[in-house]
Amino acid sequence: MKTNKNITSFDDHLDEQYGKIGTESREKFEEEFETFRIGVLIQEARKKQHLTQQELAEKVGTTKNYISRIENNASDIRLSTLMRIIREGLGGSLKLSLDI
Questions:
Q1: pLDDT one-digit tens code per residue, 73-87
Q2: pLDDT at position 2, please?
Q3: What is the pLDDT of residues 36-47, one digit of tens each?
Q4: CB half-sphere exposure, 25, CA atoms < 13 A
Q5: Which of 48, 53, 57, 70 has minimal CB crowding within 10 Å?
Q6: How far apart are CA 29 and CA 19, in angstroms?
Q7: How far apart, in whole angstroms, are the C-alpha atoms of residue 92 and residue 95?
Q8: CA 42, CA 92: separation in Å to the nearest integer?
Q9: Name one GO molecular function term (predicted).
Q10: Which of 53, 60, 47 is CA-nearest to residue 89?
Q11: pLDDT > 60? residue 1
């Protein structure tokens, strides 16, 4: 069987693009990725419930623009706001984990 020696693992790609785990550039990438992921999760949950950004914003007492910024990774979000969006807006609950 012939193998392609030019294939790189995703971890190796991240190391090359953003530095090794623990470096400042890699930590920044990881943080931004988690923020992006939260936005995608909110957007997917909102769409699954057939809610517009405006409807979700009204349920949690914020603006459509703020929901849009969260979903598009353009805004930091406070934990209390995130919990309110998930609990009051989407009827869900937030579970956190800590990796040390």
A1: 877 888 999 999 999
A2: 56
A3: 999 999 999 999
A4: 7
A5: 48
A6: 9
A7: 10
A8: 11
A9: DNA binding
A10: 60
A11: no
Structural domains in the chain, sorted by start: 10-89 (1.10.260.40)
Q: In whole angstroms, give the CA distance from residue 67 to residue 19.
A: 32
Q: What are phi and psi of 7, to 5 degrees?
A: -75, 135
Query: CA-to-CA distance for 50 and 44, rounded, in angstroms?
Result: 10
- Tokens (6 digits) for 48: 């699954």
Record the tokens describing residue 57, joined without a space.
């914003």
Residue type, 17: Q
**For the residues of 24-72, what is the DSSP string, one character each?**
HHHHHHHHHHHHHHHHHHHHHHHHHTT--HHHHHHHHTS-HHHHHHHHT
Neighbours of 86 (CB within 10 A): 19
